[in-house]
Amino acid sequence: MKDLLFLAHRAPFPPDRGDKIRSYHVLRHLARDWRVHLCAFAEQAGEEELPPELRAELASHHILRRTKPMPVAAVQALGTGKPISLTAFAHPGMMRAVADVRARHPIVATYIFSGQMAQYRGDEPTIMDMVDVDSAKFASLAKSAKPGMRSVLKREGRLLGRYERQVAQSVAATLFVSEAEAALFRSGGGQGNVLAVENGIDANHYGPATIDARASDGPLIVFTGQMDYRPNIDAVTRFAEHILPLVRAACPAARFAIVGRAPTPAVRRLASEAVIVTGEVPDTRIWLARAAVCVAPLDLARGIQNKLLEAMAMARPIVASVAAAEGIDHGGTIAVAGDDRDFAERVIAALNGPTDNPAARAQVLARYDWTARLAPLDRLLGAMAA
Question: 10 Å Cβ neighbour count for 255?
């Protein structure tokens, strides 16, 4: 086996949010054929220690706690003319750890997960997994931000976009999670070997028969996601305040469950007789299995939404916004909604329709198996290491 360096902006465990789900499965896929050396940041206590089964698959690992406050990173970025995203992840300890791995091992190739880690790239052939076009996300957020934050977000989008394009021209391949994201990057001037490598799903883990769902009091509408992430916060707020009242006018017993870790105070304030805010749960499959319908009313969505793949694998009826559904080849198994009234009408139709969605699971099995989704990496790295 040859040696590969894997750089990630978050420790790829536990795989409990979109980016960590992707990095976890990519890491394990690569470890089948490479001696993988992982260097990553931990954001929470306990993430510094990988589980035994993951450690056993790696040649070495260096997990460093990232503690730089975002306001400090912002001040430093303004002083240097760099994007805040890069400054937040600039860490002398990580620089030393990466240099040590390169000094101790004959690294043949590097896989970089997320643009923040591109600052640690070396001279060896490199795959840059951008996942999404982060600069476009900041530009989109700037449009609805308050004046002071708007200028910060516009600056971040501009500088980060320039950096993303520079990186793409210096690596062997730049990956995105969907062809829509890859096309967006190219349309903004991104050049080089720009490819889409889509997310997959562990359909054996997410399946209707994997969990015993207890009955809920009335029809349950479920949203899953990291609840300190702004697009998710905006999505559940939109649903609770504007869509749910329309749904309950037709289905008074319907309730909305917001399922996910780290709900902000704004999310917690949505809790009511009709709205459940769970916080972190041990297994989201329990809530997915209870759902009469899963929803994703996101106005801003990048790439492939894992929450939708998981709901599809669990054979749930699903209603999603155009933005949320865009990156998924769902074969018509997701009801795609427009404005609030359209969204409510489609949720009501789902509540009054079949209790499951076997066609969605069949689509996942045919289209989104992880091994098939990640096969392009084998060809890319094989050519780089030849």
Answer: 21
Task: Give 76-86 pLDDT, tens digit per residue.
Answer: 998 899 999 99
Q: What pLDDT score was predicted for residue 213?
A: 64
Dihedral sign (CA 374, 379, 383, 386): positive
Query: Under DSSP, is residue 67 helix (H, G, I), strand (E, B) or coil?
Result: coil
Predicted pLDDT at 49: 86
Q: Is 79 exposed, middle or buried (0-12, 13-18, 19+ CB in 10 A)?
A: exposed
Q: How far apart are CA 359 and CA 311, in angstroms?
A: 12
Percent of the chain with pLDDT over 90: 82
Q: What whole-number distance in Å separates Cα of residue 357 and Cα of residue 153?
A: 40
Task: Report how far residue 194's alpha carbon sits from residue 184's, in angstroms, rounded to the nearest whole number.
Answer: 11
Record the tokens describing residue 46, joined without a space: 């306990």
Given a contact cutoff of 8 angstroms between Cβ atoms, the answer to whether 62 and 36 are in contact is no
**Could you tell me which residue, 213 or 319, shows the higher pLDDT?**
319
- Express each pLDDT in 242-290 by its tens digit: 999 999 999 999 999 999 999 999 999 999 999 999 999 999 999 999 9
